[in-house]
Amino acid sequence: MKRGRLVSWIIMALSAIYFFVPLACTFEFSLRLKRGTYSFAAYENVFNDYRFQESFLYSTTLSVATIIFGTLLVVPTAYWVQLKLPRIRPLVEFLTLMPLVIPAIILVFGYIRIYNSSSLLPMTSASWSTDTLLACSYITLALPYMYRAIDTGLQSIDVKTLTEAAESLGARWPSILFGVILPNLRVAIVSSAFLTFATVIGEFTIASLLDRPAFGPYLQLIGANRAYEPSALAVITFLVTWGCMGVIQLLGRGRKGGVAPTAY
Amino acid sequence: MAFLEIAELQKTFGGNRVVQDFNLAVEKGEFISFLGPSGCGKTTTLRMVAGFEQPDSGRISIGGKDVTALRANQRKIGMVFQSYALFPNMTVAENIAYGLKIAKRPRAEIKGRVEEMLALIKLPKLGDRYPSQLSGGQQQRVALARALSVNPEVLLLDEPLSALDAKIRIALREEIRAVQRKLGITTIYVTHDQEEALSISDRIVVMSDGRMEQVGTPFEIYNHPRTRFVASFVGTLSILRGEVLDAASGRVAIDGQEVFAARGLGHLETGRVQSFALRPEAVMLGAAVNGRNGLRGTIEQVSFLGSIIRIRVALRDNAVLLDALNNPGTPPPEFGSEVAVSFSRDDLLALEGESA
């Protein structure tokens, strides 16, 4: 074996140890609920806990809503910016990056101040309106990932020429956007959807301060009160995230006609 | 009234005039090429006809109807792009059917039309393939079929063969012309390739710096270029500077050697220094006979181009290019040897507005 190759393998092995040993230890610890034997009892406890089921379902529902409305917001925006307003692209990119710069706690205090029950738009006064507010805040949080994934997808196809080709065949804007552009962004949208899902499912700060029964606050609650279940939950969360990434990889191969984005 | 009329078209981008005073009348079924170098305004003009760009002023009418203010999807045009622009998520058949579906044609009609188009482009069995599974030439044929499927009134092609290799380009341009003749569709074809324009067009519009330099048949454009730009852009030629000795008889002195130009000197004053164009294929090696013009010079360069040998003969200040057919039995003349060349009086063309 050549020396360079050996060094590569050593680096690879060290990286694998760095990433997998803590995870393996967490997994091993999560199996130790019963004294003297390995078991999945901690996992059973987690899955049998109605709060796990409810909070996971709640956060999944909010993720789906975030993905649908976020996509409906981001795709036309990114398409229009690329097609008609390329000069404002740096500004839009800057705005979509803001959620990475501004901490979620600032965002949620802003929401509470503007939408509290004594304000002109009292969105925190009812459950459904607080859920709506939470979904909107998740769209904001997911913007950096959604916009980049979709923008990369748009850049991988010749949006302008495809639009003109469809227009020359008699198509109008809705037909072009939903019949020509959107199907070619399938992989980009799936990527953005799973990145959004991964962001929303574990989000704690906003859900907690808006007092919503989301998965993030549940994770925190279990972590503070139990020993083995938090480890089981950490492993479950890892598996869900890996599952999402695996699906992205699978769909990223695309069908023969599809166009995969070069990043995300 | 012509079928497609373009009148006084002007277009400016950021203070830069890219199309100016463009006027053209195209008859139904005519094949017109816009020929010119990059940035001459040919594609912008085509895009204004297509409706992708709005002119600053001027008028475009198709079939007697003013379409200047109409959007591209209301103009009944078919467009073929350099990059094919096939929809990657759709099969070949779905691409061809797209415009018909948008027009809400009955399913049976769409199916029949798609089959007809696939037969027209000689790809009857590739309807189920995706664009990424086709070669460049096949993709461009599908793009042509897609553009024609909706029965457009005008077909516009924007450098459709530029991305293809030389052999496929030649085959496909002949196919495009054959399809155009078969359907009798009015066509505008944008290209920077003079050979392409000369080989398939009914008429050519030569453009430079946003202006029309000359409009004419390929024969006229090649044999009777009006300006130095047209002469130099279309084909190879020698530009010679000569002094007008007698405009009435066409007598001219080129580097002190007297020759005659058969046309175009009537309005020029004696003593004026004028530019003339001379095609290399019009020049022969050997002394002048039968009233032909003759010049003497020195062989400065011999380039072997396969079927022809291009020879550059230096005069005093000017140089004449000549194309000799490659004859394996006769070796080309040697570099530095003194030779006589001859050409017909008709072939010495005075260029418009070109006092040298």
The number of helical segments of chain A is 12
Q: Number of helical runs of chain B?
A: 8
Category from helices, strands and their pairing of chain A = mainly alpha
Strand content of chain A: under 5%
The beta-strand count of chain A equals 0
Task: Extract low-pLDDT stretches of chain B.
Answer: none
How do the strands line up in the largest sheet of chain B? Answer: 6-7-8-3-9-10
Number of strands of chain B: 20
Average pLDDT of chain B, rounded to a whole number, is: 91
- In whole angstroms, the N-to-C terminal distance of chain B is 40 Å
Strand composition percent of chain B: 35-45%
Helix content of chain A: over 70%
Element order of chain B: H for helix, E for strand? EEEHEEEHHHEHEHEEHHEEEEEEEEEE
Radius of gyration of chain A, CA atoms, in whole angstroms: 22 Å
Descriptive report:
The complex is a heterodimer of chains A (264) and B (356). With 264 residues, chain A is mostly helical. In chain A, α1 crosses α12 and α4 crosses α6. The longest helix of chain A has 34 residues. The mean pLDDT of chain B is 91. In chain B, 42% of the residues are buried. With 356 residues, chain B is α+β, with helices and mostly antiparallel strands. Chain B has a six-stranded mixed sheet with strand order 6-7-8-3-9-10, with helices on both faces. Chain B has a five-stranded antiparallel sheet with strand order 13-12-11-14-20. Chains A and B meet through α7 and α8 of A and β6, α2 and α4 of B.
